[in-house]
Structure formats: C-alpha cells, structure tokens
Automatic annotation (TrEMBL):
Protein family according to the UniProt entry: Belongs to the amidase family.
GO molecular function (one): catalytic activity
Protein's recorded name: Amidase
UniProt cross-references to PANTHER family, sorted A to Z: GLUTAMYL-TRNA(GLN) AMIDOTRANSFERASE SUBUNIT A, MITOCHONDRIAL, TRANSAMIDASE
InterPro entries xref list: Amidase, Amidase_CS, Amidase_dom, AS_sf
Pfam families hit by this protein: Amidase (PF01425)
Domain (Amidase) ranges: 27-447
Amino acid sequence: MNKTDIAFTPAIQQAQLIRTREISPLELTQIYLERIDRLNPQLGSFFTVTAELALADAKAKTEQLTTTNTDNLPPFFGVPTAVKDLNAVAGVPRCCGVAALRQKVEQYDEGVVLRMKQAGFTILGKTATSQLGSLPYTEPPGLPPARNPWNLDYTAGGSSGGAAAAVAAGLCAVAHGSDGGGSIRIPAACCGIVGIKPSRGRVSYAPLGDCLSGIATNGPLGRTVADTAAFLDVISGYITGDPYWLPTPKPSFLEVATAAKPGKLRIAFATNIPPFGEAALPCKQAVEKTAALLESLGHSLEVGCPAVGDLIEPFITVWQTSIPFSGIPPQLLEPMNQWLLEKANTVSSGKYLEAVAAMQIISRRIVAFFDNFDALLLPVTMQPPIRVGEWGALSPEDAFPKIVNWVAPCAPFNASGQPSIAIPAGFNAGVPVGVQIVGRPGDESTIIALGAQIEAASPWMDNQPDLIV
C-alpha cells in the first residue's frame, strides 16, 4: 500500500497491521503528521498539532513491540487519533475556540481521554471546534474555519467540525467528538463519514458529573461503522462518581457491527418535522433513498415522527447555559456567544429547573414513540451544508433562527438521551449529505447493526475527496 492508502485504511485494520509488524506505530504516526502538515492549512482541522508528543509516544510503542506479546496489546495500540479541543488533555493547550486562550495548557486528562490512551491510541493533537461548541459550523474568530474536504468553500459542520474534516481528509482514521445538539452528527453528515451520538450514560463525562443536564455526550467519528463502533467500545463505561451509567453491552458494539444481523425491524421515517416543515430536497431524497434501501433489505417502513415542537424553548434555555458555565469573560466571546450569554443571564435558577422539567416530560413522549418502532430514520440537517461564512456575518438575532431550523432533527434526541448514528447518504452538488438513525434509549446495538447493513449494501468507504489524493 502507498501512504495515501495506509492513511485511509480503517483504524481496526491499522491496529492489525501494527500487531503483525507490517507497519510500526512510528511509521503510521509520521504518515499522518506529514498529511496534517500539508493539508491542515487548507482544512483548518487542527487547532493544535502535538507532533513532538505524538512522535515520542509512537517511538515508545514501536520499541515496546519488540518485547511484548501482541496478544496482550490494547485494541488500538499505536493507532493515531485526535481529541476535540473542548476536552482536556494533560500537557496540551485547550482554547475551546477562543483565540485568546490558545496557550492555556491543561494539567489533566478528562475521563474519555484516559480511556483513549488506555486503548493504545496515539494522540496527534486537538481538533477545531466552534467557540465553546455552541454553533453547528466551525468558524471561531481569530482561528481558521474548518472547511469541508469535498469542497473548501463549504463548512465541515460543527461543533466537531475539525474532527470530521480530519477523518474525511485522511488526517486520522477515527477521532473523538462531542454532541450537545447535533455536534457529532452534523459534521459527520457534512463530511460524508460516520458519527455516533451515544445514549445518555454510555460515555462518562468525568471529572464532571454530566454536561447541561445530560443533553451532551462524547462520541466517535470514523469512516466506517465498525471503526466508530470499536471506538465507542473503548470510551464507554462507568467512572467512579458518574451520576448515571449504562451496563457494558454484550456483545460488544464492534461485534454487532461486524457480525450481528438486525433482523426484520419496524422503522419509522420522516422528512417533515413539525413545526419546522419539510427538509430541503437533497436531504429529503437522502432519507427516501435510505428508506427504500431498508425496505429492500426486509424491514418494515412507515412514515412517522414524534412531536418535538414543544421542546424548542426549554431545550434552548438549558443549552445556552453552557456559555456562562464556561466562565470565559464576555469580552473574549464572539457576538453570538455574547448574545447567548446575555439571554442565559436573564434566566433564574427556578426558570432553569422549570426548563429541565419540561424537557424531561417532553422527552418521555419522544421515547414513548419508540414503543411502536425499533428505530427512526431522519435527515441530519434540514438543508445541505452551508458555505463557510454564510451565517457568520449575520447578526445573532438573524442567524439564530436559521441555526435552530438547520439542526432541528438532532436536538430532540440530546434531550431524550437516545442514541443516533449519522451515515453517508450520497452527495448534493459534490458535497455529502447524510441521514441519521435514532434508536431506543440504551440501544446503540440496533442502530449500529442497521448502519453496518446499509454500509454493506451501499458502500461509501472508497469515496475520497480529490483534495487528499
């Protein structure tokens, strides 16, 4: 294989190549660092590249291979990856998309980062995020925007836009992201890759107890369902003090992705989401095409969608509190976040708890919809990817309604805590369009099995943007 082929080899296979000593951790890390050095100036995927730390780690692992039984190695030993810049990695800067904080070095690893290190990953750096992760496009002031590898004029999505662009462009095979309202699924759809928003309690938020009353979670992005499933396996699980958690799945998510058959399922699908209306034609067609494929695979498809309109106001009330919670001075924030900060500061503690209660009551109705269905197929966004800067120049008052409408299919399932997988579903004018499959609470296995079945029937792994070749 040439270096480009190696860079686009799935992470699971990279780990196997390392075990069989066909490639060393150092060689693989060097391939990715060279690609990052060459392509990141165009893509804006990484805020921080930790080349020295990554090379030192890769060298140590390469030496370890000479004295260690490979049967005893962790599953992703020597495989390079990246961490979203909202999360702390010891000895590495974290700015959360605030340019003034680019030199702020963290002294600890968050729980999800510890799990990644224990799984054997080598961390290449910190990927770009929208400022404080608050926007579904990644264009923080004073920092390069994350651009779509399929067309640099378009957004890579957000807030995990850097991670998605990196995976799509072959700067790493899998990457860490987080999702508080679509922030894994949206960039996955924009960039033509796979992203999983896990169930509430699947992945720890240690050292925090939770994030935003449970609407946010960490999760994986990758080019294959199996890679994202395997990544989810290694970052999942209870860490002491977690306020809620889920048991370890049996079989593992990787086993489900590679061997399990979903059986005949009853699946709802929708392209019209009241009160937001009908998705734009490319997003509608992606859902309809996927529904037809699922029906051809033996599943029962039926039009349906839970009512989500009442959720908008309480969800925004809870979600916008992430801005004051950050503790970052208002003068360092972009106009949108300053505006959200002002709105959040008008909400009393009682009103906040009222919003949490309302969100939970409405979420019960959303989950009850799944009493009659095994899964729900929806667009990820209500329209295809926007251009870089398309909404950034608008006033917050003008941009915010557009944002709410664009991400409408995602946020309800952050509120309900249900798992969702975003998968590629074709292209519109050369830019990817994706769909999402939502599962019952705690049931990632069903949506992973469905995603793998769709992938086998309509493969996307060989799709590569011209930029990276």
